[in-house]
Design brief:
It is a single chain. A hairpin with a 2-residue loop joins strand 9 and strand 10. Among the domains are: 2-78 and 149-219, P-loop containing nucleotide triphosphate hydrolases (Rossmann fold, 3-Layer(aba) Sandwich); 224-287, Alpha-Beta Plaits (2-Layer Sandwich). Strands 6-7-8-3-9-10 form a 6-stranded mixed beta sheet, sandwiched between helices. A 4-stranded antiparallel beta sheet has the order 2-1-4-5. Strands 12-13-11-14 form a 4-stranded antiparallel beta sheet, with helices on one face. The protein has helices at 43-50, 72-77, 94-105, 111-117, 133-145, 163-178, 190-196, 214-220, 236-243, 267-276, 291-299, and strands at 2-13, 17-28, 32-36, 58-63, 66-67, 79-82, 151-155, 182-186, 199-204, 207-212, 225-232, 248-254, 257-262, 280-287. It is an alpha/beta fold. It starts with a strand and ends in a 5-residue tail after the last helix. The protein binds adenosine-5'-triphosphate (ATP). Residues 13, 17, 19, 37, 39-45 line the site of adenosine-5'-triphosphate (ATP).
Length: 304
């Protein structure tokens, strides 16, 4: 089943602002989908339409097979949301927050189990106003997990988290996806999207400019890999043979290390060429172009 589908989704605010300009998106059940875009690209508007907090100017959206506008109550019941900048209730305990969501969704859960999943077991009875920013973010994630949702919508879930918190979020996202939950994940921290998501959509000024796997995006922008090869007995002939290979666009030598910019298919030919020239290869490593560079190439230099 398709978990999220939008067709020609447009949203205009007043006469001047076209927040979404015809978004066609299809996310399958069980997918972890990363939604990326610079500030103001339209990410929150899209999420708000999926949850019927905002109505589209034209086009349609369906969530878990239901119309986003006609069946919003049922959609919200089956969806866990971590909204951007959610305000917690300062005077109430962590446990109360979880119980509150369970009650409003009409589900029977063990709050301690959820609190311990998000690393707040010891703070369950403390007032959330005294939580650190990262703990508050963990609490909102816990609230999103209440009732085993079929869809998790996480808007910037790593905000305020330390590295162990970021790892916990990643683990929870994978656990949820493993049991069939679809995860729609927006983030500015591109390396985290890369580490977690099956596919990525890049939004720019209300238009979806790319939807693909991270590897697919790399291929389509012709992103190059940096190959470092530690060698012994490098000769001028060997170096020139590598330089002449198709797919090698840059080559530098630093002591016993060759540093080459190569397209995907050229990695092995560099190694085999060196060996056939009698150079012994002691070690090699590759560095892929990261999502930050890819993102820049799609959004014309605007950072997320
Ligand atoms: P961010 O990463 O900063 O949260 P975003 O990608 O979520 O950005 P949106 O919040 O969806 O972007 O905003 C898209 C565009 O719509 C922006 O130009 C924004 O100023 C405008 N916009 C959003 N909400 C409203 C509103 N209620 N009234 C008028 N304009 C709005």
């Amino acid at each position: 089943m398709t978990a999220i589908e939008t067709n020609g989704l447009r949203k205009r605010y007043g006469d001047d602002i076209l927040a979404l300009d015809g978004i066609d998106l299809r996310i399958e059940e069980g997918e972890i989908f990363g939604f990326l875009g610079p500030n103001g690209a339209g990410k929150s508007t899209t999420i708000n339409i999926l949850l019927d907090f905002v109505r589209p100017t034209s086009g349609s959206a369906s969530v878990l097979g239901m119309d986003a506008q006609d069946q919003s109550q049922e959609i919200r019941r089956r969806t866990g949301v971590l909204p951007e900048g959610y305000q917690i209730y300062e005077r109430l305990t962590g446990r109360y927050h979880i119980e509150f969501v369970a009650e409003s969704k009409g589900v029977d859960i063990n709050p301690d189990e959820i609190l311990s999943r998000v690393g707040l077991a010891d703070a369950a009875d403390r007032k959330a106003g005294g939580y650190s920013k990262g703990m508050q973010q963990r609490l909102t994630l816990g609230m999103a997990l209440v009732g085993d949702p079929d869809l998790l919508i996480l808007d910037e879930p790593s905000t305020g988290l330390d590295p162990s918190g970021v790892r916990d979020v990643r683990e929870i996202v994978h656990e949820e996806a493993d049991r069939g939950t679809t995860v729609f994940f927006s983030s500015h921290i591109l390396s985290q999207v890369e580490a977690v998501c099956d596919r990525v959509g890049i939004l720019r000024q209300g238009e979806l400019v790319a939807v693909d796997t991270v590897d697919g995006l790399r291929d389509s922008v012709g992103a190059e890999t940096t190959l470092r090869v530690t060698v012994q007995g490098l000769t001028d002939d060997a170096r020139e043979a590598v330089r002449a290979l198709e797919g090698v666009s840059d080559l530098q030598v630093e002591g016993e290390t060759l540093i080459a910019s190569v397209s995907d298919g050229a990695k092995t030919s560099v190694i085999t060429t060196l060996e056939s020239e009698g150079v012994s290869v002691a070690d090699f490593s590759t560095e892929e172009a990261d999502l930050e560079q890819l993102f820049m190439s799609y959004t014309g230099g605007e950072t997320a």
